């Protein structure tokens, strides 16, 4: 599943995030790149583990956890630590695959899904498109500030060179309760169907009760808490 989720951040939330981003300290993105990625990465990243960065990370995680579409699509078990990336002056992140496992304080996190939360107005910079390579085709993304692109970590992806302005984005990873992509998509379809039917049927109708039962039972079958 590869989707764009609009308005993860409200305008006020985005403004607040930018005020905190202006106070962050930046280091070479090579510090967080794997052996292969170091050869194709030219950007800067900010550590969000302490100080103003920790406050920003908490704000972003709260926005992610409070978004119903993201919760339905990703079925998150755990989120990784977050990074803010800054790309400018010809910077880029060439084609690469994200690490399958990431170190966390409580152990390893399996990267089922990756996400990029765009934080810059797309008209304020040239280049900087996120490109995801699916088998047989590619998709290119450069959405509005506050929008998030969610995509499977298993696919090759890249960020094209930024030739004007500055591209700011938050990147992170999700370990899902439902490891299998096809099963996550089935649940997502059913959850969307339930939301649509809720405008047509009473909450206690046989139709919605049956749909609720089906979603719950599939979660019991497939979830790996």
UniProtKB/TrEMBL annotation:
Keywords, in A-Z order: Dioxygenase, Iron, Metal-binding, Oxidoreductase, Vitamin C
Domain Fe2OG dioxygenase: 77-176
Top-level taxon: Bacteria
Ligand binding (2-oxoglutarate): 167
Iron is among the record's keywords: yes
UniProt feature coiled coil, ranges: none
MF (Gene Ontology): 2-oxoglutarate-dependent dioxygenase activity; iron ion binding; L-ascorbic acid binding
Gene Ontology process terms (BP): DNA damage response; intracellular iron ion homeostasis
Record keyword Iron present: yes
Pfam families: 2OG-FeII_Oxy_3 (PF13640)
Cofactor names: L-ascorbate; Fe(2+)
Cofactor binding notes: Binds 1 Fe(2+) ion per subunit.
Binding site for Fe cation: 96, 98, 157
SMART domains, per database record: P4Hc (SM00702)
Name of the featured protein: PKHD-type hydroxylase
Provenance organism: Litorimonas taeanensis
């Amino acid at each position: 599943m590869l989707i764009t989720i609009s308005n993860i951040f409200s305008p006020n939330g985005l403004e607040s995030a930018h005020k905190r981003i202006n106070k962050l300290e930046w280091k070479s993105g090579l510090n967080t790149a794997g052996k292969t990625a170091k050869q194709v990465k030219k950007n800067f990243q900010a550590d969000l583990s302490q100080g103003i960065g920790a406050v920003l990370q908490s704000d972003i995680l709260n926005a992610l956890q409070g978004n119903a579409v993201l919760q339905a699509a990703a079925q998150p078990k755990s989120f990784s630590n977050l990074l803010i990336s800054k790309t400018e002056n010809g910077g880029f992140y060439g084609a690469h695959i994200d690490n399958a496992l990431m170190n966390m304080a409580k152990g390893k996190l399996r990267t089922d899904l990756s996400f990029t939360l765009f934080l810059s107005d797309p008209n304020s910079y040239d280049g900087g498109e996120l490109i995801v390579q699916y088998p047989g085709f590619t998709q290119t993304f450069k959405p509005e500030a506050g929008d998030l692109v969610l995509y499977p970590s298993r696919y090759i992806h890249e960020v094209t060179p930024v030739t004007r302005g500055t591209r700011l984005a938050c990147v992170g990873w999700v370990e899902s309760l439902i490891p299998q992509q096809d099963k996550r998509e089935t649940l997502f379809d059913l959850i969307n169907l339930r939301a649509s039917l809720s405008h047509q049927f009473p909450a206690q109708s046989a139709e919605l009760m049956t749909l609720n039962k089906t979603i719950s039972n599939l979660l019991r079958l497939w979830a790996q808490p």
